[in-house]
Amino acid sequence: MKIKVGVAMLVVTIFAILIDGYSCKVVQFIFGDSLSDVGNNKYLGKSLAQASLPWYGIDFGNGLPNGRFSNGRTVADIIGDKMGLPRPPAYLDPSLTEDMILENGVNYASGGGGILNETGALFIQRLSLYKQIELFEGTQTLIRSKIGKVAADKFFQGARYVVALGSNDFINNYLMPVYSDSWNYNDQSFIDYLMETLKAQLQLLHTLGARQLMVFGLGPMGCIPLQRVLSTSGDCVDRANNLALSFNKAGSKLMDNLNAKLPNSSYRFGDAYDVVNNIIINPSKYGFSNSDSPCCSFGKIRPALTCVPASVLCKDRSKYLFWDEYHPSDSANQFIANELIKKFGFTRVDQGDAPSSAPAIAPSPDQN
């Protein structure tokens, strides 16, 4: 009888150690759009928002397309690396397992997605923030079934969360007359609509365990190459930039209110508008030579919208702020990430020195 009791106690002790090991690993859960997508849209067969063609990914790992809408890393990649966090794999990656989730977290970001469900409808398939949160709920069910509710709750409450959407709600919704939101709202009422929706979404994430969360603000989206080339002057579009500033101001206020309201929450707003705007105004000061046109372009045909194999690349990708008509280059993302790290005083979590098993950025800026 004593032997049976001893064996039972040993089994319980081992099980507790295993659960504690799972719950102590700090991982990231990322919700976002194409600025954070690491491959989800690759598995949305009908989606028109794709980064599956060369030259996307040319400066990352083996240089092949990997689902990131850039030549290299995302801002979330770089911040996570600096903090010693693993890079979370795409949720829709068919190789994703419960063990991978426990080791690395998950990235739900989807190119074309927005805070609003209606945003990005022209892309046919994309994951809105509500859909991404729904998928996160499914992830929680999987993890609870594997390690139990108590350990799962500890695991999810100890994780880091990133929410980075909003630009599509303007560029691929409100600012396009084909969407009903463009005539149902004015600038202020649309910002209010976005904030009401985002508030409900962040409160939902809190009920699901999100305690340490950062919402990324918008950059000067009126200065992306697409907006410039569609304007009559080639200059930045002031209205779009003013909307980004209004979004950031409202978003920062929302984070303050939620921090005061939600128990045990540490919700931050990452505003990099001035960081990017400073590069646009004076690129050479920050080591860039071009801040108004894409590195990857289809000759004189603009806007080409996406980078394609027939596109021509700039001679030095590290000197361009923008990779394509929409998205920053790896060098720009690194600069933005470093500024946010300094601004918020991010420190490494206690997980060793290696950022992750994901491939590092390829060193050569030369076109193959």
UniProtKB/TrEMBL annotation:
It is an enzyme of class 3 (hydrolase). This is Putative triacylglycerol lipase. The keyword Chloroplast does not apply. Keywords: Hydrolase, Lipid degradation, Lipid metabolism. The keyword Lipid metabolism applies. Belongs to the 'GDSL' lipolytic enzyme family. PANTHER family: GDSL LIPASE/ACYLHYDROLASE FAMILY PROTEIN (AFU_ORTHOLOGUE AFUA_4G14700), ZINC FINGER PROTEIN. Its EC number is 3.1.1.3. GO terms for molecular function: triacylglycerol lipase activity. GO terms for biological process: lipid catabolic process. It comes from Rosa chinensis.
